[in-house]
Amino acid sequence: MDIMDHDFRRRGKVFAMIKSIGPKLIPFLKTFCIYFVLWLPPSNPSWFSAFIKCLPVLCLGFFVLAHGISLGVLRPYSQKILPGLLFSALGDVFLTWGDQGFFVHGMLMFGISHVLYTCAFGLRPLKLWIALFLLLLGAIFYMGVYTYLEGPMVYALAGYVLVLGVMSWRAIARACCSSYDWSWGRGCTATGAVVFIISDLILAVDKFCFALPHARAVIMSTYYIAQMLISLSVVDHSERDSLWKRH
Fold this sequence. Notes:
Structural class: mainly alpha
Strand content: under 5%
Largest sheet: none
Number of helices: 8
Distance between the termini: 30 Å
């Protein structure tokens, strides 16, 4: 009976959260649609196209900030997710001119973003088997694209794969817990990390190996969805998830 009551309360909490966060997500959903409706050609980069590209992520930053304002405080978890989104937006700006020599700069910005996400997700539970599994997948992927790389990209991509893998490990690990500790926010971060991996995998193959059909549409849609899922986790975050809490 206690388990049934717990599940009922948890579902009710989820529905209440969905109702409260819906209006705050409208700017993101609108700018998400605007990006695909305008579909500005990447062959002719401009500050306007860069703005349109990073606008959905900036709106997610607004969502995180608005949630903190509604609580009266921006919690430590949100204080890491918010700058992570801002660095991601800056990465989008650099990648707008990726073919003009700024691709590595964009990777660096996203690398910083993943480090901030990792700090937010914390180190509990550890689940080292997830880290080893992701390390193996990352090594297989890197060996597959290694022959297509040259110059600084050989080292830059290796570093990025490692940082993305660590972020994904922490996101997935925190979702692998008992039913009493599990929350939909943790599920969002885990799903967001997996979708982020898919997005970056397609991007790397399309850029370094061979062209994929409809690659840009798939990359950007999965990227925005991944960022949205990670952003949603601030609504359901509990202070006991903090990396720095010692009890």
